[in-house]
Amino acid sequence: MHHESPPHMSNDASGRLLLEGLLRREFAVYYQPQYDVVTGAPVAVELLLRWYHPDRGTVPASEFMPAAESSGAIVPIGAWALVAACREATTWFSNWPELRLAVNVSGRQLAEPGMAAQMLQSLERGGFQPARVDVEVRLGTLHAAPASALAELAALRAAGASVVLDEFGQEGDTLPGPVPADGLKLARRLVAAATQDGEPPPQLL
Q1: What single DSSP character describes residue 199?
Q2: Residue 44 CB partners (closer than 8 Å, separation 6+)
Q3: Helix intervals (H) in 24-130
Q4: Is the pTM of this model over 0.70?
């Protein structure tokens, strides 16, 4: 079933609804594992967010994220999710000592003054080393973000975190000048093209 906010609901009303859900502990973190293609061992987990609304049931991030972005509620929700994920992930180190945490950063979060300092504070509260974190951001998000966003990403890298360009290779993707990045996650269409006939397409060579 598709869940949406009523069309007359303002950004402020949507934001209040989301923040009330945070206070009522209606949000939960999930993880998408990433594996080493050679050994099959898990090397990272990507942080995902779900909302369990008392009336609507499970609301995926794709449905509530636009309201969270436009209202600014994504900032406190994202900070809570990062702390929760860090505290849980640290319990897995005995089995997977090299495990990393991948965290998607939205445009609204990038535009927040002091974003890097806030993120590092959340990592500290969660008992997680920045060197174990991959901060994932899309090129489209960078293009729309203020100029200060690159400085925030650079500050995260200086603290030890890695910056990864997510879904790289979408149609029309261009770099907005020098970007402080350590890696790329290819767009699905490129991965599909590379595996379709066993040979990488020219743009991957």
Answers
A1: S
A2: 33, 34, 99, 100, 101, 102, 134
A3: 61-71, 74-89, 107-110, 115-125
A4: yes
Checking if the pLDDT of 167 tops 80, the result is: no
- Residue 183's contacts (CB-CB under 8 Å, 6 or more residues apart) are 134, 162, 163, 164, 165
Identity of residue 157:
R
Specify the amino acid at residue 67: A
Strands 27-35 and 133-138: unpaired
| 3-class SS of residue 70 | helix
Q: How do residues 70-108 score in pLDDT, each as one tens digit? A: 999 999 999 999 999 999 999 998 888 889 999 999 999
Residue at 22: amino acid letter? L
Contact 143, 137 (CB under 8 A): no
Distance of alpha carbon 205 from its chain centroid, rounded? 28
Give the other-Cβ count within 10 Å of 115's Cβ.
Answer: 23
> What is the token pair recorded at 91?
């319990």
Tell me how far apart the alpha carbons of residues 182 and 191 are, in angstroms, rounded to a whole number. Answer: 19
CA 172 to chain CA mean position, Å:
22
Q: Which residues lie closer than 8 Å to 186 by C-beta, 6 or more apart? A: 167, 168, 169, 194, 204
- What are the C-alpha distances in Å from 196 to residues 40, 47, 170, 188, 192? 22, 29, 18, 12, 6
